[in-house]
Write a structure and sequence with these properties.
By secondary structure, the chain is an alpha/beta fold. The chain is built from 7 helices and 10 strands. The protein has a 5-stranded mixed β-sheet. It has a 5-stranded mixed β-sheet with strand order 6-7-8-9-10, with no helix packed on it. The longest helix is centred in the last third of the chain and has 24 residues.
Length: about 260
């Protein structure tokens, strides 16, 4: 299932042509605007694929709109590599948590409120998958853009620049936020839209606890390296994702080794 063209009242998805075991159907590039607005915000332009970027541009500037701003949920290339080229095409600044990915004077930090394209977006720092991960709340649609913090299918990996302790705190924080603000939709960076935000976060939290128990059990059998643990814990998972699973397992080993 892909969600190219998926819409809420204020958000539209354009799917990048970069499917893989880790990116699922591809990267979801989101275009956000109040229906009557003369401008839009683009979240995660995606990979450096000129065809994709021009499709995003065509969708974004329909009805003579302009791109006011580009936001990055994090700096991994499947989300950010096209940002510089898209900025060239539109003249829009790029805001990101990591200064290395910004084009312009403004960053993207926890509790920042972005008012553009007739909408209000609120930044929520959600480190864990990566150190610079940010989610974006669109209160008017009861929606949260989650980047890779929560995926539309399966669960995310803890990347080499991520941290499990941060991720566990992030999941708890998002679960509380969803309950407090009545967020119903999760709009992920990959995979389909999730319509049960609370249930999804409950599943993610339970899944992480289960994985930690499985790793403790694998260690008890004598497994020592991340690769040895993956062969036990992920035995029923497609081997194409085992290398990425090693990142998550190593993050969990580091977490368990802390005092």
């Amino acid at each position: 299932m892909t969600i190219d063209g998926y819409r809420t009242t204020r958000a539209t998805c354009v799917l990048a042509p970069n499917p893989s075991p880790l990116t699922l159907d591809g990267t979801n590039t989101w275009i956000i605007a109040e229906p009557s607005s003369a401008s839009v915000v683009v979240v995660d332009p995606g990979p450096l694929d000129d065809g994709h970027l021009r499709r995003v541009l065509k969708a974004a500037v329909a009805d003579e709109r302009r791109v006011a701003m580009i936001l990055l949920t994090h700096g991994h290339p499947d989300h950010s590599a096209g940002a510089g080229r898209f900025a060239e095409l539109t003249g829009a600044p790029v805001r990101a948590a990591d200064p290395a990915h910004r084009l312009g004077e403004e960053g993207l930090a926890d509790e920042d409120v972005i008012t553009a394209a007739g909408c209000e977006l609120r930044a929520v720092a959600t480190p864990g998958h990566s150190a610079d991960s940010v989610s974006l709340l669109l209160p008017a649609d009861g929606a949260l853009f989650t980047g890779d913090t929560v995926l539309g299918r399966g669960t995310t990996v803890i990347a080499a620049d991520g941290d499990l302790a941060d991720y566990l705190r992030t999941l708890d924080q998002l679960r509380d936020l969803i309950g407090q603000l009545d967020v119903g939709l999760l709009l992920p960076g990959h995979g389909p839209v999730l319509t049960d935000a609370a249930g999804t976060l409950d599943y993610y939290i339970a899944h992480r606890a289960q994985r930690l128990d499985q790793i403790r059990a694998a260690l008890a059998t004598g497994a020592q390296t991340a690769a040895e643990i993956v062969a036990i814990v992920y035995a029923d998972v497609d081997r194409s994702v085992w290398r990425a699973a090693e990142w998550s397992v190593q993050a969990q080993l580091d977490y368990l080794a802390r005092p």
